[in-house]
Amino acid sequence: MAGKKKVKRAGPERFRNTQLADALQTQDMAAVAFALRHGPTVVPLMRPGHRDNPLDVGEVWTYRDPKTGDVALLLFSDAAHKPATLPPGVALQAPDWLRAFLGAHEDEITTVFFDIAGPHPLQAAPADLIAALDA
After folding, report:
1. By CB atoms within 10 Å of each CB, which of 19, 27, 71, 106 scores lowest?
2. Which residues on adjacent β-strands are paired with residue 123?
3. Interatomic CA distance for residues 63 and 77, integer angstroms
4. So what's the pLDDT on residue 24?
5. Rounded CA gap, 66 and 55, in Å?
6. Sign of the dihedral through C-alpha 76, 70, 86, 61
7. Neighbours of 96 (CB within 10 A)
């Protein structure tokens, strides 16, 4: 078929923020804040967004501790760092989306984990991330 190109979809291997991964490696909170303000974050999804509706970002997956009821938001610097035990869907979300999501759910989310399974995990309070995104 001359003239037709096969379109390649972006796979999970393209879902990453190298600057965030570097900041997590050094555990430098100022660098993490900068990376969050200027780059995307990989977010696990329970349900991916509908392809024909760009406003549908899907349903974000959160972890609720069955003993305490505490809710954790898990974020990743790279889709490759997401444990296979989590739902398979991911989204690459912009800083303004992360700020809006944290603001809307700040009273429900008790903690945020970055790259929880490694290689360089980090834990932060939602209020601290909101402050970093607003700086």
Report:
1. 27
2. 113
3. 18
4. 97
5. 32
6. negative
7. 10
Instruction: Give mean pLDDT in consecutive 10-residue pieces for the chain, a chain of 135 residues.
Output: 49 79 94 95 88 79 96 96 93 93 96 96 96 91
Q: What is the pTM of this model?
A: 0.85
Q: What is 15-49+59-134's CATH number?
A: 3.40.1350.90
pLDDT at res. 7? 43
Cβ-contact 8, 17 below 8 angstroms: no
Tell me what pLDDT residue 56 has.
Answer: 73
Residues 6+ apart with CB under 8 A from 81: 42, 115, 117, 118, 119
Report the 3 state secondary structure along 18-82.
HHHHHHHHHCCHHHHHHHHHHCCEEEEEEECCCCCCCCCCCEECEEECCCCCCEEEEEECEHHHC
Taking the mean position of all CA atoms in its chain, how far away is CA 60? 9
Amino acid in position 76:
F
Q: Which residue has the tokens 């024909």?
A: 52
Tokens coding 105: 């759910």
Domain extents in the chain: 15-49+59-134
